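Weekly structure sync - notes
Attendees: PM, LS, DV (DV joined late)
Agenda: review two folding runs queued last week.

Item 1: First target. Sequence and structure tokens pasted below for the record.
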Amino acid sequence: MIKIQQNPNSNILYTIAIKKLNQADYERLLPKVENLIQQYGKVRWYFEMEDFDGWTLEALWSDIKFDFKHRNDFEKIVTVGRKDWMDWMTQLMKPFTNAEIRFFELEEQAAAREWIKE
């Protein structure tokens, strides 16, 4: 499941992924991201993982295709989650985008929200 919140009059999108993301989550999310890209050119994305279990295969494929298509459309991306594998995922994303990317642990949510706004 994914919770989506857009900051009004801003290119910042806040998402919280809970458990496993599926194709229905991406069908809700991707049009919102594409709308922000059309409106602002570049997007800042706060992506928090709460008790996150990854993606279904179909959702992962949608994510990969979207990331490749829009690799130059992100200004900043912050991932917030458990250190054990999220820091690794953040490093994995770097070659696929020109965005500035940072990882914060769940306890650092406030700092992550500030960083995405700077």
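Item 2: Second target, run right after the first with the same settings.
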Amino acid sequence: MQVEIKQLTPIPVVMWRHVGPYEELSGIFDQLWEWVNSRSVPVKRTIGIYWDNPDYVPASRLRSAACVEVPPNFLLQDTAGLALTFEHIAGGTYATTSYVGPYEGLTRVWTAFTNTIEGTMRRQISQNPAFEVYVNDASDTPPDKLITELYMPLV
């Protein structure tokens, strides 16, 4: 696994938080993109944020968020009644790697990524949430060609 260390500036996002199994986040993304498309929101990237490790937190209590990166000066005005907020993903030092393949394989990749960071690299993970950047669109990309960038915050 190839892991890089990057310094990130805060990332402005429109966020829709979710509590429950991570698999339920795809439905939240679908609704978020309906809102984005109906309002011509200038989206740079699609991002999923994950606060909890499913190995230690029950699925019903997992915290996550569906996000779209927007310009820094974006004004969130019309949420159409959705639980959307304008926030920033924390800047700082992150370990990052890329994965090509179906989303179902991400659990295995996250485990290997975490083991590489803590074991091989001997780095400490911070309390900020990890996140994924979805490089291409699952609605028009075959599962074996999906590209996901993983970001783990470091101390």
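Discussion on item 2: The chain is about 20% helix and 35% strand.
Action: LS to circulate a short write-up before next sync.
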